[in-house]
User: Which sequence fits this backbone?
């Protein structure tokens, strides 16, 4: 599969996301905060994004431009959305479209914008004991299930198991492969391990066990130097991984708090920051992470 160019795909995704934005209502664009006391902005995000280092890279740029203090908490997408639903965050950066749609439908989100994408990959031992290298992702999952449930030696799959965006993607692949995740996959044997951890820690666990796992490409590249795992599958439309930023809405928030959150959304989709995101990782990893 030929990967779509970054500019074309982001434009297509932006148009799609705008449908949700229009129906949910969109506040006016943010403006830089006047000099004085810094406005605190709490960002709830996913470990898959945070572990790449992108947000720490962009943080000082945002803080200088908007005279703000950006506070970041990272966990799985499901947990990040839960935090936002309680009104305990100002803005979200997540990557699970189905969960995001449900959140927007609840009326607790505004100004949803896609700002980056990469691809999920299936990584595993170089020896590839399951023999899935180069297969279509859905067929690879079927083979892992067949070999794993048959007790084939050295066949282990590590799942995030944490209701994150990566875990949601994994479950969608199992569903596409024809399995019921709850009844067919969970507790189907010792070959299937639910880590309940972030992406970086899940990769480390998979490395320890020389197992297969699903990872976003960015986090894998960030951890690659410490792993003896290689990408065995990195092609397939189902592996597209889209990141969106969303302003959190609560009727308890002040107009100033909503504006500060919108500032971060506007910052992430601005041309200069889009350029920075598009080149992030090249100097360190030899390719862009997004």
Assistant:
């Amino acid at each position: 599969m030929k990967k779509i160019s970054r500019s074309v795909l982001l434009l297509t995704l932006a148009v799609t996301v705008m449908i949700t934005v229009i129906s949910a209502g969109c506040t006016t664009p943010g403006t830089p905060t006047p000099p004085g006391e810094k406005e605190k902005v709490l960002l709830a995000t996913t470990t898959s994004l945070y572990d790449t280092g992108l947000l720490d890279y962009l943080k000082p740029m945002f803080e200088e431009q908007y005279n703000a203090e950006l506070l970041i908490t990272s966990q799985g997408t499901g947990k990040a959305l839960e935090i936002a639903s309680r009104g305990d965050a100002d803005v979200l950066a997540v990557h699970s479209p189905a969960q995001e749609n449900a959140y927007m439908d609840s009326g607790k989100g505004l100004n949803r914008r896609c700002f980056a994408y990469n691809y999920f990959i299936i990584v595993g031992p170089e020896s590839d004991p399951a023999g899935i290298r180069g297969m279509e992702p859905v067929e690879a999952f079927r083979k892992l299930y067949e070999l794993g449930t048959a007790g084939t030696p050295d066949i282990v799959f590590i799942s995030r198991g944490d209701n994150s965006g990566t875990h949601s993607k994994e479950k969608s692949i199992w569903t596409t492969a024809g399995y019921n995740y709850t009844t067919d996959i969970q507790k189907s044997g010792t070959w299937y391990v639910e880590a309940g951890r972030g992406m970086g820690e899940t990769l480390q666990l998979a490395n320890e066990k020389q197992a297969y796992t699903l990872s976003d490409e960015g986090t894998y590249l960030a951890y690659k130097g410490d792993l003896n795992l290689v990408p065995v599958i990195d092609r397939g439309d189902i592996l597209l991984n889209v990141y969106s930023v969303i302003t959190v809405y609560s009727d308890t928030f002040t107009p100033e708090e909503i504006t500060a959150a919108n500032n971060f959304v506007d910052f992430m989709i601005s041309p200069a920051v889009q350029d920075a995101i598009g080149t992030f990782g090249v100097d360190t990893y030899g390719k862009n992470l997004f």
About this structure: The domain at 6-118+242-285 is CATH 3.40.190.10 (D-Maltodextrin-Binding Protein; domain 2). Strands lie at 39-46, 68-75, 91-94, 109-125, 157-159, 192-194, 212-216, 229-233, 240-248.
